[in-house]
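2024-03-11 09:14:02 INFO queue: dequeued item DUF2087 domain-containing protein, len=107
2024-03-11 09:14:02 INFO validating residues
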Amino acid sequence: MDDERCRAERFLARGRLERTPRRVADRDAVLDHIAARVLAPGEWADEREVTARVAEVADDPVRVRRDLVEAGLLGRRGDGSVYWRERVTPHDDEPGARERPAEPWFP
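2024-03-11 09:14:37 INFO prediction written
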């Protein structure tokens, strides 16, 4: 397990984010960790699906979804109807990370 994984997981309680870390570097590490569990690189999903997936790992899924977009980890259409992963993270190869879909859905 590398340092990034350790740093992110120490802020999770039973695998869930209950409070966002105050330090920017810690917050970024946690968001990278969550992004890997919400959408795989190259995967697209609608707002309802993204929110449901974030709710599996965070107590405030709407805020965390917004944080993921603001951090540049998720992109979204202007109307918020579709989301996608913007970049890979150090956590994409961890157990629990979303796997790339066999057949990507492109809206």
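2024-03-11 09:14:37 INFO annotate: The radius of gyration is 13 Å.
2024-03-11 09:14:38 INFO item closed
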